[in-house]
Structures are given as structure tokens and as C-alpha cells.
Amino acid sequence: MQARPNYINAIKKFIDKEQVKVITGIRRSGKSTVLRLLREELLLYGVNDKHIIELNFESFACSDLQDARSLYTHIQSKVEAKERYYLLLDEIQEVKEWEKAVNSLLVDFNMDIYITGSNSHLLSSELSTYLAGRYVEIPVYTLSFREFLDFRDNYFNDRSDARNQFLTYLRLGGFPVIHTADYSQEAAYRVVYDIYSSVILRDTVQRYNIRDVELLERVVKYAFDNIGNTFSGKNVADYFKSQQRKVDINTVYNYLNALEGAFILHRVSRYDIKGREILKTQEKYYAGDISLIYATMGRRDRMIGGILENIVYLELKRRGYQVFIGKLETREIDFVAERAGEKIYVQVTYKLENEQTVEREFGNLMSINDQYPKYVVSMDEFWEESVGGVRHFYIADFLLAEHL
Asked: In the predicted model, is pLDDT for residue 235 greater than 60?
């Protein structure tokens, strides 16, 4: 079992704190592994093994625990009054009205509770009012490039040059399972497609009672085909109309919302840098992992710019940034990323192959009149390090940078 210290370190800050720790992320991103790693950490803390209760609601062993009352009763039977227990609940969204059970367990027993779920709307339902102000969310993503290198080292003893290995990461994406065995590219995409199909069925179709699965998948492919481009629900509806298929715009937005909830898509709002306000139109969507695009659409060279943007976006999110698409009058900034009072600006491009591209990427950043760090990220390995105070990074180096 490969360590993922970033997530364990994030959780360790809240061990024995009163908040429920909610670990969210797309299926097969490693949430269950994080729980197992947490269990090992608790044992190192000196916690009695008998005081750690683990339940995985995708296991047949938990098939009788499908509602709040049965879950509460089951756990109640395993604990002794006043003793401290650690409760690890995996894929909690499978339990109906789980919030009621978790809230009652917090109130009635001496418990430190950790839950995982494969839906970003896990805490946005009406029932989440039971936990208002009493939880902290810790998102888990597919492997970062640094984690990918650790996996390659651990499973294949591969310590080759990071820049060369980036091409493998770019081709296969970051689902952990792909990097625990020697999969061919074709086999890897087959595995990812099966993950995608499971997410579509269980975390969108069933959870949101979607009837037109074929339309849902068309919306996915439209979004994937437009990675790196701004668009709106109206754009999607107009596209279907041009294909002689009438689709209600509200249906499009509902489907995009469901896909976002299942972490297949990430929605990124535009931010007016000069006016300092979030704009409500023409957002961008990025995939939960780039391999989802390959598995459903095939590899397309023309999409490389959007793919690189997708990789950088996910890296910024892993580092805890709130990420926006920047607008400065008529110019677009790929990413405005904010974290704890810090801010960085990032432009992403495939190649700085002509003066027009250089002017666009560096010029857009140089037009921002503040002192926050500004970066251009590309696949150019030996380009200049900086232009006009804007630093250039080869993408692999950017992903591995300790500080941005």
C-alpha cells in the first residue's frame, strides 16, 4: 500500500478534534486507501485496535446497513459508554439519511468520525444541516505527478528522469490503480473506462434519477471536447439543436451539475481581475482526471493545450488553491489561484513556438498590475527562464516545484 502523505498530514491536523472529517473524491481516487493509512496512523498514536470501527458500505458485509437507524444500532452494539472510539465509514452516501446517524453518534458517544464519499454534493443536501459547522472536508484527487513518480519507484523501481516520465503521466493519467501494475495503454484506458462507467451509473444516473443516459454521455463528451474552452449551458443546448436534437437548457445545467457532483467534471468560474468579482457566465470545465478524456474520446493531438491546462488545474487544487479563470478587459488569464491571502497567475500553453504565442502568454500576465507571482507553463524544456518578471516553467518542473 503506497503512502499518500499529503492527505494523511491534512487529516492528522484534525485527529481527536470534534469535527467530522469528510474525505471526498471521484471513485478509485484512493479514498479507501487513505482510510487504511489513517488506521495505521491511529495505531501508531497508541489507539487500541478494538476501538477502531471500520465499515465499507460497498461491501456485502454492510448490505443490511442501508439507513440511518440500522447504522446507528449496529455501531451502538459495538461500543462501550465513555470509551473513546474512532469510526471510519467508507462510501457513506450508500446509507440513506446518513447525516442523522452520524450526528447522533457524535452526540451520544465519545467518537472521532471519518467518512468518505464519491459525491461533492455529499454535504449540500437538506439533511446536511445536521452537521452544520461540525465537519471539515478533505478532497482526495487522483495522483499528482510527484505521487506518480513515487508509485513508479515503489512498484517498478523506476527512477528515470522525471521529465521523461512526464510523458507517461501525460499519456496514462493519475488513477492509482493504473500505476500499481504494468498496464499497456489500451488496457489502462479499458480500466479507466470501467471506472467512468461505474461513476456514470452509480454517482449520476442513480443518484440524480437521470433517465436519458445517452444524452448525459453526450453532455460529457461535449465538455471533454471543450476542455480549456469557456462555454455555457446555452452553448451545449445550441450545439444539440444544430444536431437536430432539442434539449432544454435546464436539463443541460442539471446534467452538468450531476457530473460535477460525481467529480467527472470540475467547474471553474471566471474572475474579473480589474473589477474583483466572480462572473456568472462562460465558465470552464475540467475533467476529474485526463485519462477519463482518453478512455471516452480517444487521444487527440489537437486537445493537448486543454489537457495540459487540466493537469495544471488539478495540481493547483491539490495544493489547496481556490482556482478561477481570469478576465482582464479583453485578455484571458488561464488561472488565478488564491490560498490564504496568497495569489498566483498561471498561463498554460503547449509550445512557445512563435512571437504571437509568446506575446499572448507573457503579455497577458505582464498586463496585470500587481506583485503576485506570474508563471507561463509549457512543454518547452529549454526556453528562457523569465521574461519581464514572468517566470517560465517546463510543465514537469512546475508540477514538482516545492513552492510557487
From this structure: yes
